[in-house]
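hi! just following up on the protien thing from before. the input was this:
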Amino acid sequence: MTPSETGRAPAAVGFGARLRWWRERRGLSQLELAGAAETPQRHVSFLESGRAAPSREMILRLAAALDLPLRQQNALFLAAGYAPAWRESDLSAPALARVGGALDYMLAQQEPYPAFVLDRRWNLLRANAAAARLTEFLTGPPPAGAAPPSGPVNLAMALVSPDGLRPFIVNWEEVVLYFLRGVQADAVFDGTPETDALLQQLLAVPGAPALSRVLPPDEAQAPVLAVHFRRDETSLRLFTTIATLGTPHDVTLQEIRIECFFPVDDATARIFQDWAAAGRSS
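and the predicted 3d structure came back as:
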């Protein structure tokens, strides 16, 4: 199997093979890529065949033309024998303190409604108190003395798994089908084995709908898809927004998402407001 036939960017191969794989994945001809990068088609052909070596500037121009994530731009630099162009920092690093403070501010401002900070593969990085209250309401408090999770909590698996939030989502099939297509789009865009592996893992969960499944539209459907949580007699209807940092120069920051939940109706809003008030008085 050649790199262009796989679902993720080729590993342990040269610059030319990576460049060709991404060009084909983006549906561009050599002429189209050359025009976008403002270089002759002959030069693109020589780069892909290995007859020419790229400069750092040319890699940046090609990466911009291909709309590559910073992580994959770094992979191109490494394949060409250069050091990575973009750093990858821990979110708690001093260099990211201002951004970390902004994320905390956003989480706090979202109260009394839930908000999460996630990485590109839906691993939980931070959450506000409302998110913790929602999770505890649905799944119950952790058992006394229970050890913390050995790895990051993955909200994608929590959504899809029958051992996670799935039993508490009334319209689970509709929600998860929309979500799986979002993960598929992520895998197409970033080309990493990790995102592709996550997609395959989610699709392999028993009961997960196939990506080809089509749910007919309802003429009376709401303008946004709401997640309908229910436990016992309590129903919560929420829709989400997802924000990203606008001008990241760090791989970690480019891959961050801030997901905020908002109530669809007054009844849901009151429940969250009451939970917040009860937390302040306790």
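The chain has two domains: 3-79, 94-281.
Residues 94-281 form a domain with the Beta-Lactamase fold (CATH 3.30.450.20).
cheers
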